Amino acid sequence: MYDLVILGGGPAGYLAAERAGARGLSVAVIEKAELGGVCLNEGCIPTKTLLNSAKLYRHAKESAQFGVHASGVTYSLPEIMAWKEKVVSTMVRGIHSMMKRHKVEVVSAEGRFTGPRTVAADGKNFEGRNILIASGSSTAIPPIPGAEGANVLTSRELLSIKEMPRSLVVIGGGVIGMEFASFFSCMDVKVTVIEMMPEIIPFMEAEHAKLLRREMKDVTFHLQAKVKSIEAKKVRFEKDGKEETAEGDIILLAVGRRPNVKDLGFEKIGLDVKPGGVMVNEYMETNIPGVYAAGDVTGKSLLAHSAYRMGEVAVDRITGGTGRMRYNAVPWAAYTYPEGAGCGITEAQALEKGHKVKTASLQMRVNGRFLAENGSKGGLCKVVSDAETGMLLGVHMLGGACSEMMTGPAAMIEAELRMKDIKEIIYTHPSVSEIVKDTVWELE
Fold this sequence. Notes:
The protein is an alpha/beta fold and about 450 residues long. It has 14 helices and 24 strands. The chain has helices spanning about 10-20, 35-40, 45-60, 75-100, 155-160, 175-185, 205-215, 265-270, 305-320, 345-350, 370-375, 405-415, 420-425, 435-440; strands at about 1-5, 25-30, 105-110, 110-115, 120, 125-135, 135-140, 150-155, 165-170, 190-195, 220, 225-230, 235-240, 240-245, 250-255, 255-260, 275, 275-280, 290-295, 330-335, 340-345, 355-365, 380-385, 390-400. Strands 1, 2, 3, 4, 5, 6 and 19 form a seven-stranded mixed beta sheet that branches. The chain has a five-stranded parallel beta sheet with strand order 8-15-9-10-11. β12 (about 225-230) and β13 form a beta hairpin.
């Protein structure tokens, strides 16, 4: 019997295995595909690799404003895809190495519960004193007539295309849709985004989302538009009471993800599963003693770094710790062009929660390093605070490499820092991150 059997080898699963193995627990990870899960093999890492190539191509074309003149700039899709595969395979090998280092047994098979402490896989039964469910999520396929068409793809298939399309229609203006819209538009593809909500990336500050659309000049946006059907290369949608069409060589379905909860034997053990995922408490415990769940399968926060922390919390609980999962300081990022990122709550969310809100915003161009490296590109930094306590509630940014600057605000929010505390922090100069402190001073 193992101390811990993990069903799923994505971010929650493999990091939990690493942490548990490091603490001396005997661990088995059961994964039907490849270690790393969707994030490493079909999501976070491959998309960021492609986006890096696209941004390099765009930077080369736009470099004249910085006194660097490049001519005849081209790209090779096969070479870009080859680099993506090399990055992914290197990372996967790294995870296998970590599993070996911590004496974790990796079972390459599909797993299914046969009892509260037993998972069947590869013709064997794996018993565990504790079980961690980390089965992840899958792309949600909306019931749109024609969605089964040959040129209608999900993000998974789009990551392996052999030829660049001349045009792309993206159904869904969330993070996944916007990242692919950025990649293809940077590569000179005509891109159209159809979103049924009033704005793209709904959890982004409204003014930031509007600026992001404005900065993505090569993309056509249709907001508050409902897709009716897909016919060959045409997407029919309704907007303002009128039917319109958009055409694309490829049509991307990017309307969200759903937790993987089916055909895993959950019903055999009486697991509490709701439409949104497996129910857990703050210690990642399910309603079945000794059975935990972490990552996308919980439906709590579909982000790889949330999954990492959930896995850590579960292992901590198993080994007698008191760590708990908190969601108030989980940063997010959209690796679009330009990037968007944030941590904490937006102004609208703060008002909904009953805070007396005080906010301040600054153009990113007031920051010397941002101006030097980004020129005329737009960007914003916004700070949201509680007017009565002075506590930091949220930091939201658009522009530059703002995804790299969210760890600081996350620590500030987690530590419940007040504005007066943040003003005393010394930042590196010149650095783009100084914009956070400068924006805080604007609250005076």
